[in-house]
Design brief:
The protein is α+β, with helices and mostly antiparallel strands. 42% of the residues lie in helices and 18% in strands. The strands form seven sheets. A five-stranded antiparallel sheet has the order 13-12-19-18-17, with helices on both faces. It is rod-shaped and about 155 Å long.
């Protein structure tokens, strides 16, 4: 019986050898240096020998990666930051899974066509942190940028958003780059960029657009802008002396309100109405108001107006003699008219600058809101109600051209314009999409101002300003004014 069992065991073993032998030979012949089921850094690494497996591991992970700074594409070589994979150590650790019970179980899984036991050897690597930091810093210095201002189109008088600023966050960028080197499939990384956008673009872009539009005018120009809520200004040669014309009558109107209580006397109201609403901006009505300011002496009234301008710090503005007077005007020197940089042939009888008139009208606007320098300087003579009524009168100006033509119909605008053969000016307070602002524009051409050049200029500048506020508030911007349609 024992002999029978022994022979039976021999037969079984022989049968197993005959059955398993071919599988084992085939299994051994098909093995690589890396045991089946073992991955290195998430990759199946082939190699008939240990040296070949090590070389394959270096070749896979020690390749350049693409690094993107926004849309800019950069190539980072591993040697730049001394990135190295410990391929020898990883292969040696992987080969341990080809021994002992792991090898036996994997052979049996092979016989029964089952997948081997899976193991992954984590990627082991080194790199120079300082070199990586230096590389990131160098690229950031080259490619990072501050927010770019809005762009503008002078053909449409409209604005478009500028490019947001981009600033590198170095720590996350370093992590992204190392992830790129250690990922066998996606060999890309991205700079971690902090976007920096202005909540509201400043007035720098508006000033650039205004200046470029002004440059198309073949003459001397100057302008002043002030946003009343913040006091921000745009000064385009705004201290240039020009003939004052009818624009300086704003000071006459203001002084009239300072001299009288509300409601104004009927005769004063009549002269104010004619001064503001007359198509010719009646000089006679302005003289009548100065007659009252001078207590029956028009020349004394003229002197009071000029004294007021000087007293309030507007030293470039004066009226030397009454309008249409035969009295030879005295020579009055001001900082503006003694500046040799610009020659505008200003009238000896009345002069001003865009800044002087813009500042005055801005303070009248603040006075209407119960604040500002005028109320502080003349608390016993002015009230918000008086300033508001003065602005209301300026809104009655029937002239729809110049600055007024650049704002949409129905917008609240008070303005005072002035004409001379060689000079034109317009002084306006406009209640725009973000609040009130003042815009003053003066132009000069030798001998004669060409209306078909001056009127579109002022209208375009006015539309640029209005559209800039629409742009800042996210509203649809208006098309350019149609001057041909208006002329008809």
């Amino acid at each position: 019986m024992f002999r029978l069992l022994r022979w039976l065991a021999i037969i079984v073993i022989a049968a197993l050898i005959l059955f398993i032998g071919p599988y084992y030979v085939k299994y051994v012949q098909g093995r690589d240096a890396i045991p089946p089921g073992v991955t290195l850094g998430g990759m199946q690494i082939g190699g008939a020998s240990t040296e070949e497996a090590i070389a394959n591991l270096h070749a896979i992970f020690e390749r350049p990666i693409l690094v993107f700074h926004g849309e800019d594409r950069l190539v980072l070589q591993p040697e730049t930051i001394d990135f190295r994979v410990d391929a020898e150590g990883m292969v040696a650790e992987a080969q341990n899974y080809g021994k002992g019970w792991n090898a036996l179980w994997n052979f049996f899984f092979y016989i029964f066509d089952k997948p081997p036991i899976g193991h992954d050897i984590p990627l082991t690597y080194t790199y120079d942190r300082q070199k990586l930091a230096d590389w990131i810093t160098a690229q950031a210095a080259h490619y990072d940028h501050d927010p770019l201002p809005p762009s503008f189109n002078l053909e449409t008088l409209s604005f478009a958003k500028g490019r947001p600023g981009e600033r590198t966050e170095p720590s996350q960028t370093a992590i992204n780059i190392i992830n790129g080197f250690t990922d066998p499939y996606n060999r890309e990384a991205h700079f971690a960029l902090i976007k920096e956008e202005e909540d509201k673009p400043g007035f720098e872009a508006l000033e650039i657009a205004m200046r470029q539009r002004f440059e198309k005018f073949p003459g001397v120009y100057a302008a002043y802008f002030q946003f009343l809520p913040t006091g921000e200004e745009i000064d385009i040669d705004a201290n240039t002396a020009f003939s004052g014309m009818s624009t300086v009558k704003i000071g006459v109107l203001l002084l009239t309100y300072m001299d009288n209580d509300l409601p104004l006397p009927d005769n004063i109201t009549k002269w104010i109405s004619i001064t503001v609403t007359s198509p010719t901006a009646s000089n006679a009505a302005a003289n009548a108001l100065m007659f009252h300011l001078g207590n029956g002496d028009t020349l004394a009234g003229v002197q009071r107006v000029s004294e007021f301008y000087r007293e309030f710090g507007l030293k470039n503005t004066f009226i030397a003699v009454p309008y249409n007077s035969n009295i030879p005007p005295p020579i009055i020197r001001t900082p503006a008219n003694t500046n040799p940089e610009y020659k505008t042939n200003p009238d000896l009888a009345t002069q001003t600058t865009p800044r002087d008139m813009g500042v005055l009208l801005a303070e009248i606007g603040r006075c209407a809101e119960g604040k500002g320098a005028l109320l502080a300087a003349y608390p016993d003579k002015l009230t918000p109600q008086k300033c508001e009524e003065l602005i209301w009168w300026l809104e009655q100006n029937p002239l729809g051209w110049l600055i007024k033509y650049g704002v949409p119909k129905g917008a609240r605008i008070g303005h005072k314009h002035g004409y001379a053969p060689d000079t034109q000016g317009d002084v306006a307070i406009i209640y725009g999409p973000e609040g009130p602002y003042v815009l003053t524009v003066y132009v000069y051409q030798y001998g004669w101002v060409v209306w078909d050049l001056s009127n579109p200029l002022m209208g375009d500048i006015s539309r640029l300003v209005w559209n800039f506020f629409l742009f800042r508030t996210g509203q649809e911007q208006l098309p350019p004014p149609n001057y041909d349609e208006g002329a008809s």
